[in-house]
Amino acid sequence: MTMIMRTPNRGGLTSSARLRQVVIVSVICLALYCFLLVPDHSLDSSRSTIVDTFPHTHPHSPPNSKSSPAWMNKPPPSLLNNRFLTTSECAAAFPGLTKEIDDVVAKGPFTLSRRPHDLGPLVARIRDGRLYILSYARKSDLSEDMLQHRTATLHQIAAALLTTPPSEPLPDTTFAFNHQDDPLSPSFSYSRPADPSLNGGGKRYFPIPHFSFYAWPIPTVGSFPRAAAAISTLESQLPWGAKKDQAVWRGTTWFNNARAGRVRQGLVAAAKGRPWADVQALAGNGSNALAIEDFCRYRYVLHTEGVTYSGRFQYHQLCASVVLAPPVAWVQHLTHLAKPAFSSDLHGATSPPAPYPAPWVRAAWPKSYDPARDANIVFVAPDWSDLESTIAWLDRHPRVAEGIARRQRELFDGGGYFSAAAETCYWRAALRGWGAVARVDGRAFADLEEIPWEEFSLREAHK
Length: 463
Prior knowledge:
globular; disordered N terminus; about 475 residues; 14 helices; six-stranded parallel sheet; four-stranded antiparallel sheet
């Protein structure tokens, strides 16, 4: 009997071995992909979202976009220093920049009338792209500070005219400019009331950039570009964890708006002896004053308005620090970009007594933003009754606090909204908007001499 011996099929064995190798390698690759490349939240869909988590997005990006941090997407100096941008280039570079102008223009036409004296707003004319002064308070009637403020703003207007693209000439118009703290209607003013009941359909407040964007000759501030550069240097060297874990404020306690009451005195009293506070009334000789950039060394910056607005607000908005303030009552040209989280909405913080927020606050600031994702400022009770508990809440949620601070700086510095380009863009939008809706009776101003700005700047700009 012949026995036939079957030999193993070596080709089949080789194929099986190779298949096992392929499977093993595939499993290893899949594991590496999952652990190294897939975001954490994709690995565990049941993981709860904690309040300390915040996205790193560019200020102009949609909330869920996956862009780089804003400091990596900051417009280049060639754009931020370019004063010759067209209207479309301005809109593309600085979304939402001119909302205040758009809102007042939407109210429709108004009439600019001549006042019976020259102590009110300065009246000027734009004709063929040049600036002429028609009516103005004599320099002998103004303090040195008021004269500086007026002159600085007129320099800003002149610069906007000189850098207007030839393809987009500004319209001829006659306008009023108010250089006092209290806004006047109709005029270019440094602020407007936030309370809608004080800014009804008959009011025409055109908020304009603060004079400090040209210069502010006081030792602790200086020009805005100088301060912005100093703040950028400080912030690049001082991470959140290295900042002083205190709330800082300096100011004169008597400088209050009548409607706000004794808000500054109340702040000093609320912070007295508290370990979380570096709050001091400014000494008469200025010995305890801080350079404006040094406020950014603190995690928390306390903001108070003055007779109306406060000229320090835009400097504080350049800090990667949390600004805490009573609800802002006077809107400057970019205040609308603030996204407040109300202290009364912070879970676990002590709620202040009623009535806060007041009805006018809810009308002016109808939305309280998510502190973990959207907010870039925190509003506290005007009597400061919840300031301590709000700071304690922020200390317990350090990543939320850091996120609020970061979003503020990313928007105002990273977005370039305080740049020379944005300032000039805004000014041309303001002049164009005013010209579109202002109705001027030429006969009312016909007897006034047109003084060219260049001559006026030499004759009436200095004491």
